[in-house]
Amino acid sequence: MSWEQYYKERSLSLERYINNIWEHKPLLIEVASSGQNILEVATGTGNLSIFLSHLSYNVVSIDNNDGVLKMAQHNNANLKGGVTFKKADAFNLPFDNDSFDVCFSQGFFEHFTDNDIRKLLR
């Protein structure tokens, strides 16, 4: 199953959005206390980034899958978020070093080695 199909089957209703925010409360508290400029890698539904954008954080969220990005942008519009979505490769980021105060993801980093993750967090 593709990531696009995975997220399509789990479309983001308001109830799912709120439940997901609640489930990720510890992560969100950590992210929100780390700085104003936030990067989410592998956006998925975009719901955590959308929530953070409502708290006045500058949020950029990337993914390398056009279909996933399209769904996240749709969710962002429906939930009146302020996220900037970009198509990008996590290991070849189109940003200057130190552009973000914090980088986070849910369900991405565990697929890579510590050395790969250090490259990403430059």
From TrEMBL:
<protein>
    <recommendedName>
        <fullName>Methyltransferase domain-containing protein</fullName>
    </recommendedName>
</protein>
<dbReference type="InterPro" id="IPR029063">
    <property type="entry name" value="SAM-dependent_MTases_sf"/>
</dbReference>
<dbReference type="Pfam" id="PF13649">
    <property type="entry name" value="Methyltransf_25"/>
</dbReference>
<dbReference type="InterPro" id="IPR041698">
    <property type="entry name" value="Methyltransf_25"/>
</dbReference>
<feature type="domain" description="Methyltransferase">
    <location>
        <begin position="38"/>
        <end position="122"/>
    </location>
</feature>
